[in-house]
Amino acid sequence: RMSVRARAASQGSLDDPDDEVVPYSDDETDEELQSEDDLDRMCLFCVLTVILLSEPGWSVRANDREYCNQPQFKKKVFLCIKKSKYSGNAIKTYKYNFLTFLPLNLYEQFKRAANLYFLCLLILQIIPQISTLPWYTTLVPLVLVLGITAIKDLVDDLARHRMDKEINNRRCDVLLNGRFEETRWMNLQVGDVVRLKKNEFIPADILLLSSSNPNSLCYVETAELDGETNLKFKMGLKVTDERLQEEDQLARFNALIMCEEPNNRLDKFVGTMIWDAQSYPLDLDNMLLRGCKIRNTDECHGLVIFAGNDTKIMRNGGKTRFKRTLIDKLMNYMVYTIFGLLVLLCAGLAIGHTYWYESIGSKAWYLYDGLGYSSSYRGFLSFWGYIIILNTMVPISLYVSVEVIRLGQSKFINWDLQMYYADKDTPAKARTTTLNEQLGQIEYIFSDKTGTLTQNIMAFKKCTIKGRTYDINFPFSPIFTQPVDFSWNKHADNKFQFEDSFLVSCIRSKKDPQILEFFKLLSLCHTVMVEHKGDELVYQAASPDEGALVTAARNFGFVFLSRTQDTITIMELDHEETYEMLALLDFNSDRKRMSIILRFPDGKIRLYCKGADTVIYQRLDPNSQNKETTQEALDLIGATAIEDKLQDGVPETIAKLAKADIKIWVLTGDKKETAENIGFSCQLLTEDMKIHYGEDVNVQLRNRQTQRRNDPQGRNKKLKEQFFTESSKNALVITGGWLNEILYEKKKKRRRLRLKKLRKRYTNSSSAPDSSQPVDDWEKEKRQEDFVDMACECSAVICCRVTPKQKANVVSLVKRYKKAVTLSIGDGANDVNMIKTADIGVGISGQEGMQAVMSSDYAFAQFRYLQRLLLVHGRWSYIRMCKFLRYFFYKNFAFTLVHFWFSFFNGFSSQTAYEDWFITLYNVCYSSLPVLLVGLLDQDVNDKLSLRFPKLYLPGQQGSLFNYKNFFISLFHGVFTSLMIFFIPYGAFLQTMGQDGEAPSDYQSFAVVAASSLIITVNLQISLNTSYWTFVNCFAVLGSIAIYFGVMFDIHSAGIHVIFPTTFTFTGAASNALRQPYLWLTIILTVGICLLPVICIQFLHQTIYPSVGDKKYEMEDEEEERKKRKPTFQRGGRSRRSAYAFSHSRGYADLIASGRSIRQRPRVRPELRESIREAPQAENI
């Protein structure tokens, strides 16, 4: 249970929050959402009473599957259909099955406006009265679009099927009919008794009953669940440990478990077990959660409490959000704009046809059709006819072309060898194909710390003993730069490295008792458990930094060998000593240190203590108010520095991204001191920055809130004054407790109750309201907006001691109030919520399992690859997509609007300007490949220059390459091209005589000349827009033109006309028209006039108004101007306190003191994954 202080802080207490307490803000159970007074009085007995009295509650009967199917446990699903509220253990993440794929996929695709529009268009084309084009001109492209998208969705869903099948078909032993039988995970049910073995994953949330270890102790690895790599121990109840060891005993087990409803609280479980008329309380220490792995325990037995979607890991998955890029949203708005223009054009042409028929058409005898329609009705039919003809203004192939480009860009990310991490054989992986161009528009990056910026592998780097420092940089002689040889120590860990041989020589000579005392303390004052694996010692630490300290003592000759409930045995260089343990005071968040009282073999009693300097120094100062009788004589022996080494290239990556105007916020669950140290190590924080903490921020925000209240117009105007007026750089370091205090992020029900009380108090009182509390929701929102504004004024922001939900809330605030594109990057299960909330989620496949990777959009192994993902792939993808869209709209406007100009010469009669098959194949075959290749391959600069000049990233953040301005430029460009393509051939055909004496001024010859001019123009236009030429691009442009002429001559041939006389009507038109040199001259003239202005404008624009990319070669070399970086640690600089004790989790003291750790027999222990390291930290001893 939460401490009173923590609970008060979470409920909006006016007391300052505790910086060392993580405020849990995830979902709470119904029992917790009571009034505040009830909550404060609630104790464990009361909680259990509420659970027992609730109807029907969550209850489980051991070895009784039918119990969960009783009527009181049924819930209504649909109408009268009911099913059990207890989930099965099968996991389902796929969307389709064999029967539902086709209808569901088509339904989802037709929810896209463009697809639905073309379906309606296809229906219109079937109606004879308004059909102006054959039905196949729309059906062929629509089927291609739907088919390609369906295939892509099918491939993605098959991958989900395979993953679900692999998980659901894992095996475990379940007790059925009195004996254990192997079964699949998917067949497990609530109430089953299961048997788990070493290194197996836990299939459900299970109550631990017994294990092969003494006192039913069971070690679990929770990396997949909470991101922590150190092992945790779970214990069964004493009664189940004594009575449920054998198979027949487990078969007779029939206890009733009453507990809380399924929820996502990883830190809490409350329940009771009723067995043989006795009640036994249950808590989280008795539970094995799904996603964990059994370690160092040969065998254990448990009872399934929550299965499948009811398990805590599934409840913590967060809601999967459908992510769309800014370009996607903008593209949809533009399609709506095009549709609006289409309706206006068609309405105008319909009105034109009405007046034309009234004044001319009805009086021309040769136009009489015998239908007797009125002019207004003919205008109505003409409107729908032009809707069909001009439908290509809304490009049907746009969406499928975009999907193809995104798929190709994703493959390029997967194939990038410079993002491949050879040490772990881990390539980069684009796990989505819909967000690539958004990588080129990132403004804010939210990063986890441990395992993301750091390697999460702890290493003992240096120590100071009685004022003398021993480290890897010994200053006196070059002979000490070689690694120390520990071959003299048979227990040494081969992975441990140290380069100060002088320290080893001092230890082996035994001349300095202070050094010997220092390492004796390290080998004795800890809660590490040890296991003998053959001749090798395997340490099991509650935290990786404590393991690093004990391993260091081991290598320097003070080897921790074993422990019992009352003794600790160590090897001191060449002899073995056993010390009697009188008391062990474990680390907790209040003490921030641990102590041990030992009786030495000579009878002396000594207290050893280690912890963070902030608490150790208080007990050394004789003027301290915290002096205690046993602490006045504490003598400082020395201090250690443990390093959680930064990943390679982290400072350089952060600097490079900062130059690209990308702001980086660090969100971590670590202590404030640890997070601040990492900030300095990775140069996110620098010595010239002024750091503001939660207290300062809270004061400034209260002042702004008071200023707004005192202003009569405060609610109607926005205060735009900056929070920081100094010219110096500012940084913000804030803890989760202060974050809740500042943002009023409390439970919704409690917040409503508090706001109601405050409004009532404010109404009844003549005094002003407390500035620390919001009067209403509007003030709460303004407070949040003020915080975001303040944070965005800072050069660096670090949020520490924050929960997974708080991480997501911070990301949401920036998205909401800054309308910015955000990216979250993390490596643990505690980062999943943040990754899902951001516009882009990146998972690092590091030391903390694959939970973050499985929830991410992109994944790789090292943080440094982020700069290549954004500055190279993201930037390229954005530029390519923008260029593709601008050109795609242009070529469709140029193609479609020729019909519009032609309508002025055909009585607005809905006659097409081209041959039907040309309209069908224009976007599919004649103009698609070159622009697709530009969208896939084009580069304005290569990858090296993209990384060398981060400023090239700015156009993406500004959205300057594709917006409504660019859209209307493409529109006017298309209008100009369509004018030239229609009127130049039209003028040439007015008075023309061919070489054979015939006038090639018929409609079919005109259609051939206009189509040929269009194809050559649009393909040469994409050539002008291509920055990076390859053989493939050249082949695509020339090939598209060649395909056009080849297909045209085929469909205009006499042979195909004989086979399909009504479908192919342009018999001999191509060969008749294109044999005239005059018409070839017309085509060349049309193409030249269309392209010449474009060439001139591009030349003048690059000369007079060059873009950032145009000036790339004129930029000053950044490598030369880069200043020599200051060392991270400097004498006389800002002191950065360590956080060893702050980051240290609860150890095994309770376990040791209870005697439950006494080993009965040596067991084979699996290989542990390597320990995890923390940034240079000092720990005082």
TrEMBL record:
Catalytic activity, as annotated: ATP + H2O + phospholipidSide 1 = ADP + phosphate + phospholipidSide 2
Binding locations of Mg(2+): D448, T450, D827, D831
SUPFAM superfamilies from the UniProt entry: Calcium ATPase, transduction domain A, Calcium ATPase, transmembrane domain M, HAD-like, Metal cation-transporting ATPase, ATP-binding domain N
Gene Ontology BP term (one): phospholipid translocation
This enzyme's EC code(s): 7.6.2.1
Annotated localization: Endomembrane system; Membrane
Domain P-type ATPase A: 168-234
Protein name, per record: Phospholipid-transporting ATPase
